[in-house]
């Protein structure tokens, strides 16, 4: 939840005063679901919760032509402090190693060798394709030092960072395939 809170506070901070829908639309355009595992439905919950907690304030509520009213938010002084607290807390955390494939890797020797090689090739191809997609996406963004004119330039750097991680993962998987092909892995044991 702290990643969602940080993203929402940061987005409100950039574009304030801002409607909840605009925050959601902006984070979708950043592909935050892919690199921050944000659930877009949780954005409105975060806006409401942080308003109750005093981090955000409602600036205006206007009718939206038969749809639910649009609420406009901005950070409070406490919201600005919370934003920097969350930013610093997450900035100094060590990178996580959570990847469901690590569990697969722990037991990959239980698969026949030819299947293990197919799995690793698939992992490499998928990671490389995802990296290329992220780089292509980064190339399409119009970035700006003034976020209202385009995406903050750091969104492109975020995409490049993830593309680099995926490319490194593809290279690792390809090296392991090569080890398999050269017979440089212990034989798979089956009971």
Task: Explain this structure.
The chain has two domains: 2-91, Arc Repressor Mutant, subunit A; 100-182. Helices cover 63% and strands 13% of the residues. The chain is built from eight helices and five strands. It has helices at 2-15, 20-29, 32-35, 41-52, 77-91, 100-106, 113-140, 153-182, and strands at 18-19, 56-64, 67-75, 143-144, 151-152. Strand 2 and strand 3 form a beta hairpin. The relative contact order is 0.11.
State the low-pLDDT regions, or none: none
User: What is the helix content?
Assistant: 55-70%
Q: Which class of the largest domain in CATH terms?
A: Mainly Alpha
User: Mind telling me the CATH superfamily name of the largest domain?
Assistant: Winged helix-like DNA-binding domain superfamily/Winged helix DNA-binding domain
Query: What is the CATH third-level topology name of the largest domain?
Result: Arc Repressor Mutant, subunit A
- The secondary-structure element order is HEHHHEEHHHEEH
Distance between the termini: 43 Å
In spatial order, strands of the major sheet run: 1-3-2
Query: Measured on Cα atoms, how large is the radius of gyration?
Result: 22 Å
The 3D shape can be described as elongated
Arithmetic mean pLDDT: 85
Number of strands: 5
| Percent of residues in beta strands | 5-15%
Structural class by SSE content: alpha+beta
Number of helices: 8
Largest sheet: 3 strands, antiparallel
Could you say what the CATH architecture of the largest domain is?
A: Orthogonal Bundle
Number of domains in the coordinates? 2
């Amino acid at each position: 939840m702290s990643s969602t809170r940080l993203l929402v506070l940061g987005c409100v901070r950039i574009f304030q005063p801002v409607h909840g829908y605009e925050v959601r639309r902006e984070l979708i355009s950043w592909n935050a679901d892919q690199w921050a595992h944000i659930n877009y439905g949780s954005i409105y919950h975060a806006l409401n919760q942080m308003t109750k907690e005093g981090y955000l304030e409602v600036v205006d509520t206007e009718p939206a032509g038969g749809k639910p009213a649009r609420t406009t938010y901005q950070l409070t002084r406490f919201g600005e402090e919370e934003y920097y607290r969350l930013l610093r807390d997450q900035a100094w955390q060590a990178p996580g190693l959570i990847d469901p494939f690590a569990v697969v890797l722990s037991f990959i020797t239980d698969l026949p060798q030819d299947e293990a090689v197919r799995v690793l090739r698939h992992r490499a191809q998928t990671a490389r394709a995802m990296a290329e997609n992220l780089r292509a996406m980064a190339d399409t963004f119009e970035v700006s030092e003034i976020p209202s004119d385009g995406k903050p330039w750091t969104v492109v750097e975020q995409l490049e960072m993830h593309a680099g991680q995926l490319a490194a993962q593809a290279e690792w998987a390809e090296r392991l395939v090569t080890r398999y092909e050269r017979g440089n892995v212990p034989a798979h044991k089956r009971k």
